[in-house]
Amino acid sequence: MRRNFLDPTGFTLLEILVALTILGFLTAMVVPAMGVMDNRARAEETVKRMERIRRAMLGDPDRYDEKGRRIIGGYVGDMRRWPELWEARAEIRPKCGDPDWDDPAGPAEGLGQGPGYDLSPIKAFYRPSGRFVKGRWRWNTPYRKLENRSDSNDHIGGLETENEGQPRGLWTRYTEDLNFTVKGASAGVGDYEPPGTVEGSDWKGPYLNPALDENLKDALHFADDEASYEALEPFWHNSGPHNGFETWEDGSYEPTSELGELFDEKESFRLLQNDGRLADGWGRAFRFFITEDKDRAGSTIFWIISEGPDYEGRYPTKGSCPPLTWDDDPDDTMGQAYDPDDTYNADNIVMKLFSYDWEAVFEEEKKEKEAATRKRLEVIRKAVVGEAPTGLNYGFTGDLCRLPKLFRWEGSSWDDADESNAYTKGQPRGLWTDTPNTADSGDDLPESTSGIGWRHRSLKEPGGIEDENVLQDAWGRDLLFFYDGAGDALLVLSRGADGKFNFLSTNPEKTEPESLTEAVDTSGYDPSVVCNQDNLHLLIDQSDWMPGFFRLAKLTVFNATANVTKLRFFRGGTDAASETKMAESLVDADADTQVDDWVVGDGTVPALVFNDTTAEKAVTGARYLVIWNDTDIDAEGLNTPDPGEEGITIIYPLLGVSGSGQQGELTLDVGDFKGF
Description:
- The protein has helices at about 15-60, 75-80, 225-230, 265-270, 335, 355-385, 395-400, 540-545, and strands at about 85, 90, 125-130, 130-135, 135-140, 145, 285-290, 300-305, 320, 325-330, 350-355, 410, 415, 425, 480-485, 490-495, 535-540, 550-560, 565-570, 580, 600, 610, 620-630, 645-655, 660-670, 675.
- It has about 675 residues and is of the alpha+beta class.
- A hairpin with a 2-residue loop joins strand 12 (about 410) and strand 13 (about 415).
- The relative contact order is 0.07.
């Protein structure tokens, strides 16, 4: 008989029991399967998150340049290194005996803050610290940069051992987030000012969205206020085998102990606090390590580890501590001894990024950029001195007979400051324009007269407008120019691959010059200094363009006029009268019975001579010898041919090579003179 389900009498007790039994069997079968699928889904999400981190660090793995090389993007593509790992500020030990130790207005050293990042194990724990604010955990700043140090205990919190560091540079320039001044940061160093360590100018991030905690309540089963957090293991005590030290972090690495967070409740709590920390699919912070690559000397590995569904992992400890004196073991590190088959590591999800994947690319790119920068420096050298000293000087010094002044962008124009306080660092704008000062025509370069002055640009104008109209190296950074007034020298400097240099006054990062008018001594530049070893530089001094060698044995001018016929050798000196000669007395050199010939020099005593031993020097380049009739008799010091006067010009190429420029006898007739 079919039951009427609208029957108000309902189900019998037997029917209900049968239904519950069936549901129980179904639950027993389905719940485990759901758990497996849940962990599988979380593992897949973990791998996806790891891949996002990898792309943020290295860019798209499927991009190649025209030479078939992998294009390295992301953080590493810009910064040429792995991002550093940062933990929250170290936790202060209770009863450390220093009431000012944690005073934000002037904290003592040893909290791990910059600039030295030293941490005192006597007064601070190695674990990162935080606090509850309105029931929510907040990390204490500034963040502490993790390092492998030989001068401090890094068995906990180093790059090769268990740590809670995060690659903060992936999402912020202000990695340290120093929000107070550290007074007298370290011996010999003054106050350390906010914001502390900042990513350099090459940083083009963010490369990844800032990490936000999606599961704020995950850790509440451990602690929900300061008191419950302090009650977690390890906790402070003043008795027992550790003589007042922590139960784990400062002395319990014993062979029989379970290491690390396997029994560290405080760390398990912190790993579930993920504001500012990248987390896996289980909502637990990733572990990051930067280790040596044991298979490739000099290379490193960046590790991303999820501890998987069991939330546990075991890591090398760099030695043992039986119980308080540490015995170092350099082979007991992540790079050497991490065991993926360990019981606690078997379910870990590990992604390893190898520096050799990008080091070879960068090294090849570096060599190409160095070669391209050397070519640019050579172009600049030729723009300044041509092929001098052994070849013809067709550069700026050959035309203007001096090195170019340096100019800087000042708000709305290019300026060279004033003569009493001229820039010693700037851009040599005269190489490409005769109006280098865009606000003052007084700095305009004079038009060429008798081979001295502006003829044309000796260098192609750089791209960019206003303050970006500057010469750059192959890395796209401004080339630095330093003028040495005392030595009359010009130093051209590329900061190289790392963008840093150490010469005269610089900013703290060694990336930019300061004190733009300070005296420069180019001999003080030391390429062997660590900061300068990848720099490329060019030094141009007077030996490159002075002196030019020239000797004219004898000059004869027929039919000259006494005290009117003159010669001037436009050598580029500052004393115009010193190289000008006038026909004060005449002779009969052509035997025409007329005393109307002018003879200078006799072969033994030359008519003109300039070299490295003469008091007056001549500049290398195309130098003009002008012989003319000065009919308006220029005033002394103004010995220059004028329009309407007649004469002749001969151009001699002067080289900076001893023995060159030897000229025999030159014979002319005034009848060959032409108007200027």
